[in-house]
Design brief:
The protein is mostly helical. The chain has 4 domains: 68 residues, no CATH class; 54 residues, no CATH class; 82 residues, no CATH class; 64 residues, no CATH class. Helix content is 62%, strand content 2%. A hairpin with a 2-residue loop joins β2 and β3. The termini are far apart. About 12% of the residues have low confidence.
Length: 382
């Protein structure tokens, strides 16, 4: 049933006339509603909630605490020691300078050692170890560490010019100059070819031997052709001479090729052996006689030429009857060694015996013109 009209009007008038109320709340932490809030139930308003209400007033403002100002103190001024500051700065500066100086000296030391090691290695490759002192003086005394400058100074030394003499000759001939590496590599190629070809040690295997080849721009292929020509010369040589060289001295094809390739560059021993083998070969051809090594070397040492060897061998062949012992007579035959020594004058005793044998035969054969002429012919060579 609805509210009486006079009561509703009264409540509205009271509401308008009521002064503003402070903010109210239910118990702190409770779930109440704001004061004077009315509830509508079934379209009607209920009365205000007043049970256990608590008036909550706005908190009073709390005055801010002012920071406590320190008590004023009287400052004491200390005098500044500028000299001490300057001394400290100077000491620090000197320390920095010393450190920088040490670093610079260490860098220079490493550069000098590096340059010296590089050039020393090159000198060993070039066979110029004797210039090690020259390089050390440049690096550690004069302070030169630029390898290009060092190499330029090295190239001006007499030792360097002698070592790479082929380059100077190439320059004069209008050929390009080889670098040190190219020069040494070409020498090594020459040397390897000689060894592989079986040529004897000492024959065209030194740096000086290769100077003329490099100066003449001889390639390894061209040198190989020349070596083959030496072997061809052996095959085309007098077979008796080649045979005697092998028989007397056990000389192989390599030594023979070296001799025929360049007789003037053959070793002195090989030259003597070759000349004595020519003499021995002539005896085989002209007298069917084999000389011993000692006999062949003796005639070579006496300066017997191939022509003289041929004439002597023919004379010995024609006087065999004179040298032989006659049947029924005492006396020994003149030996081959005495025949050779007597005919070529390498033994005075052998010459005397041949002459005495000639006179004996002349006496025995009064008409021995043949013996007389024969003896004269033989002794005439002496």
């Amino acid at each position: 049933m609805g509210m009486p009209r006079d009561l509703a009007a009264y409540m509205a008038q009271r509401s308008r006339a009521a002064a503003p109320q402070p903010v109210r709340s239910t118990q702190i932490g409770g779930g109440g509603r704001a004061p004077s809030q009315r509830f509508r139930v079934g379209g009607n308003q209920t009365g205000t909630v007043s049970a256990a209400e608590t008036v909550v007033s706005a908190p009073a403002s709390v005055p801010q605490e002012q920071p406590t100002q320190p008590a004023a103190t009287t400052a004491v001024t200390q005098p500044v020691d500028f000299q001490s500051l300057l001394d400290q700065q100077a000491a620090q500066f000197e320390t920095q300078i010393s450190s920088l100086r040490f670093q610079a000296e260490e860098t220079q030391r490493q550069q000098r050692e590096s340059a010296s090691q590089i050039i020393t290695t090159r000198l060993a490759d070039y066979g110029l170890e004797s210039l090690g002192g020259f390089v050390s003086n440049l690096v550690f005394t004069e302070g030169v560490v630029d390898t290009n400058i060092i190499m330029g100074r090295l190239r001006a030394t007499p030792e360097y010019k002698q070592r790479f003499a082929g380059n100077e000759q190439r320059r004069k001939a209008g050929l390009n100059v080889l670098s040190e590496g190219e020069y040494v590599a070409l020498e090594n190629s020459y040397r390897q070819l000689m060894r592989q070809s079986g040529l004897p040690t000492g024959f065209y295997d030194s740096n000086d031997d290769f100077t003329a080849l490099i100066a003449s721009d001889v390639s390894v292929g061209e040198l190989s052709e020349r070596v083959n020509q030496g072997y061809e010369a052996v095959m085309n040589a007098d077979p008796e001479v080649v045979s005697e060289m092998r028989r007397l001295y056990n000389i192989g094809d390599g030594e023979l090729a070296a001799y025929f390739l360049d007789p003037e560059r053959a070793t002195p021993t090989l030259l003597r052996q070759a000349r004595s083998a020519q003499i021995a070969g002539t005896f085989v051809q002209q007298a069917d006689m084999q000389l011993t090594q000692a006999q062949a070397l003796q005639l070579e040492a006496a300066g017997v030429s191939p022509e003289q060897a041929r004439a002597g061998a023919q004379a010995i062949t024609g006087a065999q009857e004179l040298f032989a012992a006659l049947p029924g007579q005492t006396g020994e035959a003149i030996s081959q060694e005495e025949q050779i020594a007597g005919v070529f004058g390498t033994s005075a005793a052998a010459q005397q015996r041949i002459r005495r044998r000639t006179r004996e035969r002349q006496a025995e054969f009064e008409a021995g013109g043949g013996f007389a002429a024969q003896g004269s012919q033989v002794t005439g060579l002496t």
